[in-house]
Amino acid sequence: MAEATTRPGRTRAGPALLAAAVILVAFNLRPAITSVGPVLDQARSTFGATAGWVGLLTTVPVLCLAAAGAVAPRVARWLGLRGAITAALCAITAGLVLRILGGPSLMIAATVVATSGVAVAGVLVPVVVRAGFPARVGLVTGLYTAALQAGATLGFAFTPLLADRFDGWRPALASWAAIGAVALAGWLAWGRPGVSSAGPAPAGHGSVFASPLAWIVTAFFGLQAFVAFSVMNWLPLALMDRGVSRTDAGLLLGLLSIVALPVSLLVPPLAGRGRGQSGWILTLSACGAAGLLGLLLVPTTGPWQVLPWVLLLGLGMSVFSLALTVIALRASSAARTAGLSGMAQGIGYLIAGTGPFLVGLLHESTGGWSVPFAVLLAAVLAQAVTGALAGRPRTI
What is the reported pTM? Predict the structure, then answer.
């Protein structure tokens, strides 16, 4: 099967519409996950579900994100790149509808469907960026990442409002399917990524698993995701244990997410223009380390005392945009991008999935947050080292 090659003529409406399609897809890759948390207690009460059901529902997305590393490139070779992302968007939209139509078992099954679509699209969009925008990888990756993070933020911010507006958690969750349908329509209309319809073939010259650089990129992706998943899950409770109210802790978590948006828009295009991205990665990692040090060492008496450290931590977590940029820039072709994206995200999300569990275990065993935050600080330092190596101008 021939490797994906650029075909500018296939993009009828031009690169701008393809970029718009990528942004629409990106916006739908997190609400399926983040919209559940704010109404999870209501869903559990409706079903009379156990804590085990809650644990399974919240673990499924991470497992799907990890499994996609092996599945997504094969789906792209089977359906073609455009067809694979179309199928992923169909799965997201269908899953979001199905999960509110039945009982607890159907909700789990539909969550698997929806988050499998999220995972497959998440692996393949960097391939679209690499193939469709070879000279603007940083710019389009920045737009893609900002849209993804905006979708995540709106998912947990607006779902409670939708639940109040529509008088229930079921219509609130189902509302996100409408956005998925819009993305599907936009992708079908504009998503002609200028690559062969057969999709990327298996990368030649050996598997990416044999490349030391691929393992460095994977470690970098996994470590930054380890920190992000841990912070998003445990920071509100850590702040509340230090005297911050529940409302203020929620607002601080929202600010942490929002501060990453402008960074995601501005930094990848700037980083993509240079020969390497190591300096940018080290700078953002230093911000994250400073934020964790402040939370670890500075006494907390209220939200204003922790605000600077939370903002620095948010800047540090925006290194996610550079993790995606590096995946596209370190691969020498669309086929290599598919292999590297699958490897980095598949193994990386497995690493990430251990973060919330480990942080929770350390908090329970020590009765405090000093040890968990110290472990996260060590992970940020390891992220800085692997990120600096991943950002050097080489390709697989």
Answer: 0.79
Per residue in 123-151, pLDDT (tens digit) is: 899 888 888 888 888 888 889 988 998 88
What b/e string do you get for 10-48 counting C-beta neighbours within 10 Å, with b at 16 or more?
Answer: ebeeeeebbbbbbbbbbbbbbbbbbbbebbeeebbeeee
**Interval 114-123: pLDDT, tens:** 999 999 999 8
What are the chain's domains? 8-190 (1.20.1250.20), 208-390 (1.20.1250.20)
State phi, psi for 240 to the nearest 5 degrees.
Answer: -65, -35
CA distances from 319 to 70, 163, 255, 361 (A): 24, 32, 16, 26
CA-closest candidate to residue 203, choices 334, 348, 395, 67: 334
d(CA 318, CA 333): 26
> Which residue's entry shows tokens 């990386």?
348
Burial of residue 206 (CB within 10 Å: 0-12, 13-18, 19+) is exposed
CB environment 170-180: b (16+ within 10 A), e (fewer)? bebbbbbbebb
Please count the CA atoms within 13 angstroms of the CA of 336 that sit on its side-chain side. 18
Model pLDDT, residue 301 = 65
Scanning the structure block, which residue is given the tokens 């998925």? 180
Residue-level pLDDT at 192: 67
Q: Which amino acid is at 235?
A: L
